[in-house]
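Incident log, support desk, overnight shift.

02:14 A customer reports that sequence design results differ from what the structure should imply. Their input is reproduced verbatim below. On-call engineer (initials T.W.) acknowledged and began investigating.
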């Protein structure tokens, strides 16, 4: 479980197919010293297990399905990624509950400065629009954000200068793919409302 508050950024060193899985290597000196083997780390919002680390490099195994369904398939060496270690018992809950299980990829549409802030519009497949709630929460590349506008095939959020400076959004441009995770509470309610009553 995560909060959507990005702890650090890293840069992709390598992303290559191996015999049993894809290996993702991220250069992340800010986390390399403290991260423990076997722990969960959200990379662009996707929960991955740290399998090896050395000299500031974090190594993860990535399933083919994960690569295909996330923006990992579009990333190349040098790309900036968001990193967050899993929530610990007793930590402050500053964002919202984020599982690290990506629902769908979105596409950056508008992304422009408006005054001191930035306006970010993201296109999504229409069937996912039911999870968009104005003033509700969404994780974009693992960043906990508040939905300002919700449409049939898109949504928009406002980005404050701090968020822009400490996340991969500083390098995002229109046309980029972003990982999206919709609010867990909404998905649970939908599931419960559609499920038969247990007797």
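02:41 Re-run completed on a clean worker. Output:
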């Amino acid at each position: 479980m995560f909060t959507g508050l990005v702890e650090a950024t890293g840069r992709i060193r390598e992303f290559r197919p191996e015999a049993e899985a894809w290996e993702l290597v991220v250069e992340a000196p800010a986390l390399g010293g403290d991260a423990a083997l076997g722990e969960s780390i959200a990379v662009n919002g996707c929960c991955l297990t740290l399998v090896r680390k050395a000299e500031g490099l974090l190594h993860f195994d990535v399933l083919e399905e994960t690569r295909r369904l996330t923006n990992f398939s579009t990333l190349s060496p040098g790309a900036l990624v968001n990193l967050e270690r899993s929530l610990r018992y007793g930590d402050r809950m500053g964002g919202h509950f984020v599982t690290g299980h990506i629902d769908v990829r979105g596409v950056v549409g508008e992304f422009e400065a408006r005054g001191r802030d930035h306006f970010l519009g993201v296109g999504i497949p229409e069937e996912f629009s039911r999870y968009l709630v104005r003033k509700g929460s969404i994780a974009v590349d693992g960043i906990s954000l508040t939905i300002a506008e919700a449409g049939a095939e898109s949504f928009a959020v406002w980005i404050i200068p701090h968020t822009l400076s400490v996340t991969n959004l500083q390098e995002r441009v229109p046309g980029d793919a972003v990982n999206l995770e919709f609010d867990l509470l909404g998905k649970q309610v939908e599931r419960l409302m559609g499920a038969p009553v247990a007797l």
